[in-house]
Amino acid sequence: MDDGVDDGKGITEEFWSKGLTDDAKMMWRVGSRGVTFLAALLLPKTGFKVVDIAVGVLTMLIPLLVIETQRAYSKFSPGFLAWVIRISVFASGVAMASLGLVVYFGVVMPLVSAVGIPFFQQSASLQFQGQSGVELVGFWWMAAVTGFAVMYAVFKNFRETKVFEIVYHLPRNGVRQLMQERPLRASNWPMFVWFELCVLIASFFYTLMASQAALLVVDGTQQVLMLFGISL
């Protein structure tokens, strides 16, 4: 865009409509669809078909919406474009929240477990040794206080270092700005390929985070249920 004036067109619309032949468009469409389908197959599986299918559909749907709207931005109604932007921003938010779950279960929970397991083992041994209930309550109280202290310290550190802003707000705001303001134009083949490949890679990363979070939740739930003799 020149002089900051919005021409009402998408990032790749001008090049897609005038810079590519119909043959090239068809080959690129087939290739990009093949990449998204392969990405959906490569995602980790939770073992629950509903969850796996939903994540796979998102892997193929999100880049389709973003890419196709940028190829013909001026031809869509404002209401439809607003809906696509909301879906894209929501998807990025879900992905970043999933990244938070991955960090939580991968960093915080091991720390809490490392602290809590010795207390659990000690209280169990006291129970087997026939110690009084007061001593057992004391051990469990110390375990709970220590566990909460560890979690509070980790979350406080995350907040002070603005990790949440970096991994959640910045990506969401970036997606919103890219979709609404469209600050660049793909005027040649390298820029066109770069933009659409970035969309495909980012979409795969987002859905990968969601699938990893779902996998962690499913595995964690199964482990907890197994402690009570329940299996899924």
Q: Based on helices, strands and strand pairing, what is the structural class?
A: mainly alpha
List unreliable stretches of 5+ residues: none
Mean pLDDT: 75
The total count of helices amounts to 7
Q: For the terminal residues, how far apart are their CA atoms?
A: 56 Å
Strand residue content: under 5%
Helix content: over 70%
Total strands: the figure is 0
Element order: H for helix, E for strand: HHHHHHH
What is the overall silhouette?
elongated
Radius of gyration: 24 Å
Walk me through the structure.
The protein has 232 residues and is mostly helical. The protein has a domain at 13-114 and 182-227. Helices cover 81% and strands 0% of the residues. The protein is built from seven helices and no strands. The longest helix is centred in the middle third of the chain and has 51 residues, at 78-128. The model has no long low-confidence stretch (mean pLDDT 75).
Give the helices and strands, then pairings.
Elements: H1 13-18, H2 22-42, H3 49-71, H4 78-128, H5 133-160, H6 163-181, H7 189-227
Q: How would you summarize what this structure contains?
A:
With 232 residues, the chain is an all-alpha fold. Helix content is 81%, strand content 0%. It has a domain at 13-114 and 182-227.
Overview features:
81% helix, 232 residues
